[in-house]
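Me: I keep going back and forth on a fold encoding question. No explanation is needed for now; the record alone will do.

Assistant:
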Amino acid sequence: MLQGYVYILTNKAKTVLYTGVTSDLIQRVHQHKQKRSSGFSSKYNCNLLVYYEVIDGIEAAIQREKQIKAGSRANKEKLINSINPSWKDLYYSLT
């Protein structure tokens, strides 16, 4: 079964949150950092990985992403603070 990752990125000022899902977290965050896509995260400079979850099954990860996206910013901040209260960039601890 393929693992999935749900992640939250923010910008330097921590004013914008982007929630995504992927099967390769390191590669996907690297793509965000390199601004390889011209979407929301690139437009708002969301390139700091502040939260992620490892989930068994990509379909389950997609469902979890939808659940997080449907929540309020306050709920997303609670998730981030639960594992990363200083909001440091977790990408470098993965590589």
Observations:
- The domain at 3-94 is CATH 3.40.1440.10 (GIY-YIG endonuclease).
- The chain has five helices and three strands.
